[in-house]
Design brief:
It is a single chain. This protein is of the alpha+beta class. It has seven helices and ten strands. Strands 1, 2, 3, 4, 5, 6, 7 and 8 form an eight-stranded mixed beta sheet that branches. Strands 9-10 form a two-stranded antiparallel sheet. It is globular and about 65 Å long. The two termini are 26 Å apart.
């Protein structure tokens, strides 16, 4: 598990990003060959190919044109990876090309919806174009912290009910963007609440009681075991509720990777109690 620490507004060499994480060095959509992350590289030059990428006025939604310069765009390769990133637990990171050839990190994104539009390709022929509609993941997190909103914590869900909410497929249906935003946020919240409820006040890494009583109800922190960041939707089997000390050990300890691998096994055993282990 590689560490990641991209800072909004900072400059990065694309070659160095690929040196660390792998992925296609030429495409605008580049899935890491090493980690569960997809990079989007956006630039003004895309306009000549019918690409139009931009934030809305409130800077909460980012519209991104799929890949494919000639002919209809279809859901394969990078386009498919973006469409399915929530359900496949992959993070999406947005970078913008600058005039000096470097890229600035913008934000982490979560797919809300997509539309099929008609637009010219590189040769001027009309074709189907995929427009992805992303929400800023930081905006999702801020919304979940807004105590004026009705949250799942106010409802007495069972552990199984929380798991079903956490597994909700956000890619189906024809709801409005606003409805899908709520769905994604609720799924993100359900996963975190599910992990803490499953832990029942005991750190899922060291098996010790949570160290203090928090104002929010639990001092256990939700850790994403397969991901590079702690934001956005995930899968119930990919998260653990752990104490701050264990969380710091995983991210900063010299044995962090090994400790995380042990935690993965413990959560798999919890989620699949009948899972058989064979010793050869």
């Amino acid at each position: 598990m590689l560490s990641i620490n991209f800072s909004p507004g900072e400059y990065y060499k694309r070659s160095e990003i690929h040196d660390q994480f792998g992925g296609n060095r030429q495409r605008g959509i580049s899935a890491s060959a090493k980690e569960s992350v997809i990079f989007i590289f956006s630039g003004a030059s895309g306009g000549q190919y019918g690409y139009s990428d931009s934030w809305n006025e409130e800077r909460t939604l980012f519209m991104y044109t799929g890949e494919g310069q000639i002919g209809d765009q279809v859901f394969s390769m990078g386009n498919k990876a973006l469409r399915d990133h929530v359900n496949s637990s992959k993070d999406v990171f947005l970078f913008h090309r600058t005039t000096n050839g470097l890229y600035t990190f913008d934000d982490q994104l979560t797919l809300i919806d997509y539309e099929i539009k008609r637009a010219p390709d590189r040769n001027g022929n009309m074709r189907d174009v995929i427009e992805f509609i992303f929400e800023s993941s930081s905006n999702i997190e801020r919304s979940l912290l807004n105590t004026s909103e009705v949250t799942l914590q106010n409802i007495d869900f069972s552990l199984d009910e929380l798991k079903q909410l956490a597994l909700q497929d956000t890619s189906n249906g024809h709801e409005t963007i606003q409805v899908k935003q709520v769905t994604v946020r609720k799924r993100s919240e359900a996963i975190k609440l599910y992990a803490r409820r499953r832990a029942a006040g005991i750190c899922e890494a060291c098996d010790q009681p949570e160290p203090f009583e928090a104002k929010s109800g639990s001092s256990l922190e939700v850790h994403h075991m397969y991901r590079l960041s702690d934001g956005g939707p995930d899968h119930p089997e990919h998260v653990a509720a752990i104490c701050p000390n264990c969380h710091a050990r995983i991210h900063r300890g010299i044995d962090g990777n090994e400790y995380n691998e042990l935690l993965i096994e413990k959560i798999l055993d919890k989620e699949n109690p009948l899972r058989m282990k064979y010793i050869y």
